[in-house]
Every structure is written in C-alpha cells, then in structure tokens.
Amino acid sequence: MNGHDAGEELLRILDELSTLIASARSMPMSASVIVNREDALDLIDRARSAVPSAVHQAEEIVAQATAVQDRGRQESERIVMRAQEEAERLVAGETVVRLANDRADAIIASAEERASSLRHGADDYSDRSLAALEIELGKVLDQVRTGREVLAARLAHADPSQRWAQPSETRPEGGGRRRAGWSVDPSAAASQH
C-alpha cells in the first residue's frame, strides 16, 4: 500500500469510527453512548496498521524532498563555483592584457628615450665635428690669405721685365733651371714678414 492509499484508508477508518459513534445508542440522561467494543477495536487496529504505512510514505516524501533540496543546493553551488572560476579567468585575462599593455608602453618609452639619446648623441657628435672642421677651414683660409698677401707684395716689388724670365748668364752651369729664391709655403712666407 503506497502512502496515498494508506492516507485514504486512514481517512475511511476515521469516517467509519465517526459513523459508529454517531449511530450508537445513547445512554439515558447522559451524553455517553453504547458502542460495540469489537467494531471499535477493529477500526482502531485497522487505523494502527494504516498509520505506519502513511508515516513511512511521508518519510519517503520528506527524504525525496530533502534529496531534491540537496541536489538543488549542489547544483547552485556548482553554478556559483563555475561563475567564480569564469570571473577569475576573466580577471586574470584582463590582468594579462593590462600587464602586456604596461610592458609594451614601457618598451615603447624606453625605445623612444634611447632613440632620443642616440639622436642627441649624433647631433652632438656632428656639431663637434663641424666645429673642428670650421676651425681647420679657418686656419686654411688664414694660410691662403697670408700666402696671397706675400705673393702680392713680391709681385708689387719685382721688376716687371724680370718677373717671368731670367738672363742666360744667371743660369747655373749645365743649363739647368735655377730655383727661385722664395718659397710658396705660406707658413714660411709668414715667418719672413
């Protein structure tokens, strides 16, 4: 007998007991009634046998409800755990992306700083080289001016007829050419002044 049947049986027994008492003969001048003992005890025995079955069925229902509640709790815990894991994964992913962006920014900043330093070094080297070249060119220009001044002075004091030709008697023996008595070295010319 299942729990539903046991419950219905118990209700039937209680109805029969109620009918037995309601239809019993009343005692004169009293609220008491005369009930057939055997019928009443039979109904009570049937009720007792029906009660354990109903109680057992109720216990099964409670156990099933508890099992369903446990499964629901486990499922909700599993869903919460999955949600937490997903949240942690997303946070970890965002952390990795943020760290990668920070690292990329640091690399770019370092590269820009290095490039700026290299440009500054190259500009400084170029400036120093150009300054040294300017000084050397200034010295060469001074030597050229000095040499031209010496030449201009000699040309101004020389006899125009003897500027380019020398008489044959002044030539050394052997007919070779005689070297000029002056130098075109500007530094030597500068020392003669």
Describe this structure in words.
The chain is mainly alpha-helical and 193 residues long. The chain has a domain at 3-24 and 33-116. The chain contains three helices and two strands, in the order αββαα. The protein has helices at 3-22, 37-157, 186-192, and strands spanning 25-26, 33-34. The chain is rod-shaped, with a radius of gyration of 66 Å.
Topology:
Elements: H1 3-22, E1 25-26, E2 33-34, H2 37-157, H3 186-192
Antiparallel strand pairs: 1-2
Helix pairs in contact: 1-2, 2-3
Mean pLDDT: 79
Portion of residues within helices: over 70%
> What share of the residues does DSSP label as strand, in percent?
under 5%
Instruction: State the major sheet.
Output: 2 strands, antiparallel
Q: Could you state the order of secondary-structure elements as H and E? A: HEEHH
Strand order of the largest sheet: 1-2
Strand segment tally? 2
Radius of gyration: 66 Å
N- to C-terminal distance = 146 Å
Please tell me what the overall shape is: rod-shaped
Number of helices: 3
Query: Which structural category fits the helices and strands?
Result: mainly alpha
Instruction: Extract low-pLDDT stretches.
Output: none
